[in-house]
Design goal:
Elements lengths: L3 H24 L8 E5 L5 H9 L4 E4 L2 H7 L8 E5 L7 H7 L3 E7 L2 H14 L4 E6 L16 H11 L3 E7 L10 H18 L7 E3 L6 H6 L4 E4 L1 H4 L10
Parallel strand pairs: 1-2, 1-8, 2-3, 3-4, 4-5, 5-6, 6-7
Helix pairs in contact: 1-2, 4-5, 6-7
Cofactor: pyridoxal 5'-phosphate
Protein name: Pyridoxal phosphate homeostasis protein
Family: Belongs to the pyridoxal phosphate-binding protein YggS/PROSC family.
Length: 244
């Protein structure tokens, strides 16, 4: 169980993050309602997530499949869950079966995982799943994601050959230490323009998942529609609880 003081602090931090996100959108003339704050709750206990839920938040993200499918059934069904980061193809069906209210996967980084997700959606008979293609904008070999030059090809594959998936946009993590730079964000917005042109999509309806605790305001100012904020809301991670 999370201590009451920690829970109260997290709820206060959430309200601060949401306010900062709205102000960042307003600074550049964007509609704040088009910006989603994904509260990334990996390694955090169900009781703490529930406290944030009770404060009015509904959008949460998890990174590790086993932890995710353990926690999600213990929480309300109206949560909008997001899976963030690299997903192993052989865990696609496990994830979807364990989290029926999964709204979006941020992190399709190849045709194989896209195909596995597509088949899993079909076999489970659930509604089509929104997915974002993950782009490696930093050039680091350790980062998942396709190279910017391959983005259109993968987006086209999802759009044309995965009828149970809804290609919704692009995602990036950024630099090796998980920070990002304006160059990372600019690369992703350039990729958005290329994909929209190739697929005939409107940039207004295109999702960009970029920006984390240290840079989410800058990401919003540069066009992000999903910011993934964890430690600023929940406090430092306890990676001793990590499960894949």
């Amino acid at each position: 169980m999370a201590a009451p003081a920690v829970e109260a602090t997290a709820a206060t931090a959430l309200r601060s993050v949401v306010l900062r996100a709205r102000k960042a959108a307003e600074r550049v003339g964007r509609d704040p309602e088009r910006v989603r704050v994904v509260a990334v709750s990996k390694t955090k206990p169900v009781s703490l997530i529930r406290q944030i839920y009770d404060a009015g938040h509904r959008c949460f993200g998890e990174n590790y499949v086993q932890e995710f499918i353990d926690k999600a059934p213990q929480l309300p069904e109206d949560i909008e869950w997001h899976f963030v980061g690299h997903l192993q193809s052989n865990k696609a069906k496990t994830l979807l079966a364990g989290v029926p209210n999964l709204a979006m996967v941020h992190g399709v980084d190849g045709e194989k995982v896209a195909n596995h997700l597509d088949r899993a959606v079909s076999s489970l008979g659930r509604h089509p799943l929104k997915v974002l293609v993950q782009v490696n904008t930093s050039g680091e070999a350790s980062k998942s994601g396709v190279e910017p030059s391959s983005v259109v090809e993968l987006a086209r594959h999802v759009n044309m050959h995965c009828p149970n998936l809804v290609f919704s946009g692009l995602m990036t993590i950024g630099m090796p230490d998980y920070t990002s730079t304006p160059d990372n964000f600019r690369t992703l917005t350039s990729c958005r323009a290329e994909v929209c042109k190739a697929l005939g999509m409107s940039e207004d309806q295109f999702e960009l998942s970029m920006g984390m605790s240290g840079d989410f305001e800058q990401a919003i100012e540069m066009g992000s529609t999903n910011v993934r904020v964890g430690s600023t809301i929940f406090g430092p991670r306890d990676y001793s609880k990590k499960s894949t």
